[in-house]
Amino acid sequence: MVFPDYRPRRLRQNSTFRGLIRETHLSADQFIYPLFVQPGKNVREEIPSMPGVFRISIDQLAAEAKECLGLGIRSVILFGLPDKKDAMGTGAHIKDGIIQRAIREIKNKVPEMMVVTDVCLCEYTDHGHCGCLINQEVDNDATLEILAKTALSHAQAGADMVAPSDMMDGRVAEIRAALDENNFEMIPIMSYAVKYASSFYGPFRDAADCAPQFGDRRSYQMDPANSREALREATLDVDEGADILMVKPAVAYLDIISKLRDEFDLPVAAYHVSGEYAMIKAAAEKGWIDGEKVMAETLLSIKRAGADIIITYFAKEMAKLLRK
Ligand code: PBG
């Protein structure tokens, strides 16, 4: 059937028809909102390159979690700024580390809020790499044990799900084993299965003070040029026991999200990262784009590409818009 027998505009003529045939929907219960937690009291400090996103102290967490729940956002992912860093990233897994305390605070005061934790060492190492160093190289196998300890310490503090973002080989299996041995077999792993060595993480590294002090992350994070390799990475994580596969960043990698959606039956998450957020905010501030509309269109595109879950700094803003 071709024009004039078939007219696609028939089903676009009003908002009722458009609503009736809409293929993709955003929903606040599929957002995960990132929170940056720092030491101190009464701290609520806006991150300069991420307008609307704050570093907050532990005493502010319950209020923040309640606000999210009020908007229909039921999950947060935590990032910590420790007061001390060392070569081995010890602060990542100590019992009274910043994240462990943050988890306990949220689960004590707002137990309905699902707490996801980022499992990585870069915020806790003085050199800023995601693993420990041997001869100035990030040593894969030596790092695994520390990551497993970190994930376990999060579960012990009450985390509902752990999300390893370090990109070491074999970490999902190592973390799964450590959790299972300690009776945390019901804690899922959302692996950053496909994480690219991206330049879109800039504002996050300012926020979490975790830029590498030398070199870069290209020996562990993926080359942006590769897509077949994404399938291999995801396959490994599935075989090692991942429950959810994440792609990061999101918008520059919609093709990868779509591929994972087609190839795997596990839920797919996408991380709309700091640089992607900052670009929209900056252009909107200049009046060059309509920030709200671009936000909605962007998040919708991530959904349409195949993501079930979106980790986004826009979670609260988008949830408010969805309520209107
Ligand atoms: C930790 C981590 C990073 C991000 C999430 N977890 C930084 C990095 O890998 O350099 C980036 C998130 C963002 O940019 O919003 N490894």
UniProtKB/TrEMBL annotation:
Pfam families documented for this protein: ALAD
Molecular function GO terms recorded: porphobilinogen synthase activity; zinc ion binding
Matches recorded under PROSITE patterns: D_ALA_DEHYDRATASE (PS00169)
UniProt binding sites for Mg(2+): E233
Ligand binding (5-aminolevulinate 1): R205, R217
Residues binding 5-aminolevulinate 2: S274, Y313
Pathway entry: Porphyrin-containing compound metabolism; protoporphyrin-IX biosynthesis; coproporphyrinogen-III from 5-aminolevulinate: step 1/4
Keyword field: Heme biosynthesis, Lyase, Magnesium, Metal-binding, Porphyrin biosynthesis, Zinc
Source organism superkingdom: Bacteria
Chain positions recorded as Zn(2+) binding sites: C120, C122, C130
Keyword Metal-binding included in the entry's annotation: yes
GO CC aspect terms: cytosol
EC assignment: 4.2.1.24
Keyword Magnesium: yes
Subunit structure: Homooctamer.
Name the UniProt record assigns to this protein: Delta-aminolevulinic acid dehydratase
Organism: Desulfopila aestuarii DSM 18488
